[in-house]
Amino acid sequence: MFPINRRGLILGAAGLVAATAARRPAYAQAPAGPHSLPPLPYAPNANERAIDAMTMEIHHARHHGAQVAGLNAALAGQDQLSAMALDDLLMRLSQAPENIRTALRNNGGGHANHSMFWEIMGGQGGEPTGDLKAAIDRDLGGMEKFRTDFNAAGMRVFGSGWVFVTVTPAGSLAITTKPGQDTPLMDGQRVLMGNDVWEHAYYLRYQNRRADYLAAWWNVLNWERLAARYEAARNGTLRI
């Protein structure tokens, strides 16, 4: 049943999400541990051209916050793993005890993916310049083909997952997808950028219209931050 307001009106799907969110605890204050929820680098309404403020708030504080809490809980008593940087932990999942490996994979992957996701948005879209543009032209066939192929890859993700662009130390780019909260870091690769195609990332505005969300997302990319990530990948300082 959908929730009903004081006037007895059915609030609908958006009201259901909002009412449910209001009843949940805020996960922004994660249990004590080595990892913390990074603040959004902009106001929740900064990405309105693609993502509404309520979705940003719920996605960041509750979904990402819960993953940080889950990651810290899984690392409790694991001093060696707790001392690792997040990317090192994800690249060495096979060394983790089997009984916590799934929790580390899901929550650690989600923490890395979302931290990257917030960082690369908050911009005005458009196109890159300089070395990043040259790499896109060389490896991905130019911006138009890149957008088309990236969105198509996002549409092929069955259920929940991510579409990424990986980057090598030599600056080569490639499009890939991962299920759930998996990340290319788990394969020893670095991530330039990625889009979250879990329904919680877009459902309030787009419902099941993932294609519309994927198309609109380009309008809020911050190409200056993406260029900085590209340079960091090439000089060995890119982390998540």
The name of the CATH superfamily of one domain reads: Iron/manganese superoxide dismutase, C-terminal domain
The coarse silhouette is globular
In N-to-C order, the SSE pattern is HHHHHHHEEEHHH
Gyration radius from CA atoms, angstroms: 18 Å
In percent terms, what proportion of residues is strand?
Answer: 5-15%
Poorly predicted regions are 1-30
Determine the number of helices (DSSP H or I, runs of at least 4 residues).
10
Assign the CATH architecture of one domain.
3-Layer(bab) Sandwich
Question: Main β-sheet, in a few words?
Answer: 3 strands, antiparallel
User: Which CATH class of one domain applies here?
Assistant: Alpha Beta
Mean pLDDT across residues? 91
Number of strands: 3
Class from secondary-structure proportions: mainly alpha
Helix content: 40-55%
Walk across the major sheet and give the strand order.
2-1-3
Could you tell me how far the N terminus lies from the C terminus, measured between alpha carbons in angstroms? 41 Å
Structure description:
The chain has a 3-stranded antiparallel beta sheet with strand order 2-1-3. It has a domain at 130-235: Iron/manganese superoxide dismutase, C-terminal domain (minor pseudopilin epsh fold). Strand 1 and strand 2 form a beta hairpin. Helices cover 49% and strands 9% of the residues. Helix 2 runs antiparallel to helix 5 and helix 7 runs antiparallel to helix 9 (210-217). The chain has 10 helices and 3 strands. The radius of gyration is 18 Å and the shape is globular. It has 240 residues and is mostly helical.
